[in-house]
Amino acid sequence: MATDLDSTAAESGGVTADWAVAVPPDLKKNFSVLSPAQIELAKMLVEMGQSHLFRDWPDPGVDDQEKLAFFDQITLLNESYPGGLASYIKTARELLEDSRLGKNPFDGFIPSVPTGEQLTFGDDSFINFEETGIKESRKAAFVLVAGGLGERLGYNGIKLALPRETTTGKCFLQHYIESILALQEASCGYVEGGCQTQIPLVIMTSDDTHARTLQLLKSNAYFGMASTQVILLKQEKVACLDDNDARLAVDPKNKYRIQTKPHGHGDVHALLYLSGLLKKWRDDGKRWVLFFQDTNGLLFNAIPAALGVSATKKYHVNSLAVPRKAKEAIGGITKLTHADGRTMVINVEYNQLDPLLRASGYPDGDANCETGYSPYPGNINQLILELDSYIEELSKTGGSIKEFVNPKYKDASKSSFKSSTRLECMMQDYPKTLPPTARVGFTVMDTWLAYAPVKNNPEDAAKIPKGNPYHSATSGEMAIYRTNSLILKKAGVQIDDPIKDVFNGQEVEVWPRVTWHPKWGLSFTEVKKKVSANCSISQPSTLVLNGRNIHLNSLSLNGALIISSVEGAEVKIEGQVQNSGWTLEKVDYQDTSIPEEIRIRGFRINKVDQLDANYDQPGTFTLRPQ
């Protein structure tokens, strides 16, 4: 005789008849609450060893809304992961077993130095690549991965809203958008008769950052970009794992909720694939996709030349890199060749590269070569992908990226975790699945030009040994002034040497506070056209150039000079500017009366005196200060 439960199951599609394992009683009695689709999800979970999720579920009529909310979450986790939750659990078991056994993911691979391009800022090769890259820019789309908050920095906002530097106060996102718009305009300038091509910007957000990123854009009129030009794709989280059997971790405060954590920025590939944007871009004539991260304020100094390398060398994948000292705590771009003939060019983390080299017959491991640097350049997680080959690869993988797991074990037995773990993936691991015929290379730029990420809070940065990069808000801002000063110096301007000072326990070089709008100095060629050799800038000075056609003809600056000009205004600066200028005042990062974005730098700018020149009408003007 059939029971009510059995008849309910029959009404729900007869799902109990073909289950590979016994239905947990606490689940079975709740079939009447669930839809057929939800029962199918339950079946998948049980068959994947997740019966514990239904333990102690009460009878129908109790917590029914919570039960349905549980399946809403399961549905989201299932739909947002390529292959669904069953695939996630299966992969997790394999990777957890490899981790438990201490399996080396590079077993059978021999490392070697990959093919790439080493660029020297300002030489003929660099200038030619830069020009080629600017021409190609209108055929590019940019993808910014920005799923994280600034908590690690001691800043509670989204990192994109953090001022890149405090001389102008422009945030990272504003600088990125203004740089893309400058590239767009300059690239269209190479087309006879001009063009109206727009460069798309995709921003990958998360639950933590999506609403605030949208608000930042809307409240600032998208920083001059058309709203239709910016696309936000939200990344979902993945389920946490409780043990080596990959049992999904239940929230200790809510038995109807699975613990979740971010999956990593490798999700960007699947999001792009599923969005349909890649094929649309191809139909629109795009050729390149450039990926970058949220707080490297120097990146756009390097992008034009790196894109020029991709176009000239016909790279399918081009990783932007910087010179790297042997054993420095930054991953190295490495070619790996397996005994079975497989090859790949990928980032190998620094703590894996040295033992891998030693095990492969290099007794000194990761050692500096005759250049004084490791032959394996430092990966900075900025990628340029050729669009056609990218679409072809993602059509095979669905955008799924090789994952890893990093459980924190309670003891050496590796039988249990200190806390739940999850699978992770990284954007830069995309090349791992590429065929041997793929053209994968790198472009090395000077660190001072291309790389100054902001990711450490003041306390952690102060503990970093002297001479190593702090990667803090303090060092990130000072790096911008250093870079701009060195670019001007290379163009012939006399720049005073920096002084050394300590802010928030970090000793940094303090150069003149020079900053400009991207449309003023998009390339080194543009900068050289707008400055002359008989200009000089003293170390305490501040120079802000906010306009396209501002020419420094014979400027002697000892103070603060702020120049703004509209399109159609050409301004020539001649003579001496002398005033009390803007000074740096030290502040304590623990002083909560000071805004977070200021105190994490250890200084604020006191605007004592300046010469402000604003040209708001088209025309030709000459500024000759007395």
UniProtKB/TrEMBL annotation:
List this protein's GO terms for biological process.
UDP-N-acetylglucosamine biosynthetic process
Q: Name the top EC class.
A: transferase
- Enzyme Commission designation: 2.7.7.64
Cofactor list: Mn(2+); Mg(2+)
Species name? Kalanchoe fedtschenkoi
Q: Which domain of life is it from?
A: Eukaryota
Hey, which family's this protein in? Belongs to the USP family.
Alphabetized UniProt keyword annotations: Nucleotidyltransferase, Transferase
Q: Which reaction does it catalyse?
A: a monosaccharide 1-phosphate + UTP + H(+) = a UDP-monosaccharide + diphosphate
**Could you tell me what this protein is called?**
UTP-monosaccharide-1-phosphate uridylyltransferase
- CDD domains hit by this protein: UGGPase
Q: PANTHER family this protein is in?
A: UDP- GLUCOSE PYROPHOSPHORYLASE, UDP-SUGAR PYROPHOSPHORYLASE
Q: Give one GO molecular function term.
A: UTP-monosaccharide-1-phosphate uridylyltransferase activity
